[in-house]
Amino acid sequence: MIAYYKASPTEYVILHRKGETRRKGKGLGFFYFSHGSSVISVPLSAIEVDFDLSETTLDFQTVHLKGQAVYWIIDPVTTASKFNFAIDPRTRKHLSDEPERLKQMVVNMVHDSLRADIQRLKLEDALRRRAVLSKAALARLKQRPELETIGVEVVNVFLKSARPTPEVAKALEAGYRETLLAKADVARKTRRMAAIARPDGGDHADELDGVECNDLCPFATVCEDYRKHLHGGKAWCTLFQEFSR
């Protein structure tokens, strides 16, 4: 039976009949004998493949990476010789899982390229340097001869997220909050000390709440601020962490 096949503009098609290549090219249309013929279709458009990986950092913490790799098939004849891209011409579906195996091979190479840098970074550095890790992984992939031998070129690597384990994430969040609170406390104390040190500090200090600071305080004899840092009748109380009234 004679059949007709028309390839899309982003498709490289190869017609095999009785073990010989009869036609090949980009976007071809041709008649062929369906009996004894096989049609091979290799995509020429960019192929996007998502990945979800886990790796261990320099400080032995696990980081989970989600991202996407983009690659082209730059030599379809070579790729078709390494992987089975034969299709059913009527449904245009591949007859094997070889195209998916190619995607997994690319993901494995991406993982290998990321691993080289992540294992040299501490967890917090790995979480902050997604863009740097993506560029480094792409540079490593460009130098891999295995990709050239299968006719593939990786053109981009995106790291969408980098996350620690839930337990470590909670610890990091708690530490970050404590750091922010400590910075806010230092800023508050600095502003108060600046206010009390100004020539008109007495007027500003009257607006500040605090505790009574006098000889009745049981800590007055050991309070250096009470003895040495009185200004305009006010002093910073290290015990109560406030200005005296």
Whole-number tally of structural domains: 2
Instruction: Note the gap between the termini.
Output: 103 Å
Cα radius of gyration in angstroms: 34 Å
**Proper CATH architecture of the largest domain:** 2-Layer Sandwich
Strand content: 25-35%
Q: If you consult CATH, what is the topology of the largest domain?
A: Tetrahydropterin Synthase, Chain A
Helix/strand-derived class? alpha+beta
Side-by-side strand order of the widest sheet: 3-2-5-8-9
Order of helices and strands: EEEEEEEHEEHHHHEHHEHEE
Show unreliable segments.
Answer: 201-212
Average pLDDT reading: 81
Q: How many E strands?
A: 13
Your description of this structure?
This protein has 245 residues and is of the alpha+beta class. It folds into two domains: 2-164, Tetrahydropterin Synthase, Chain A (2-Layer Sandwich), CATH 3.30.479; 169-244, no CATH class. Helices cover 38% and strands 32% of the residues. It contains eight helices and 13 strands. The strands form four sheets. It has a five-stranded antiparallel β-sheet with strand order 3-2-5-8-9, with helices on one face. Strands 6-7-10 form a three-stranded antiparallel β-sheet. A three-stranded mixed β-sheet has the order 11-13-12, covered by helices on one side. Helix 2 crosses helix 4. The radius of gyration is 34 Å and the shape is elongated. The model is unreliable at 201-212 (pLDDT under 50).
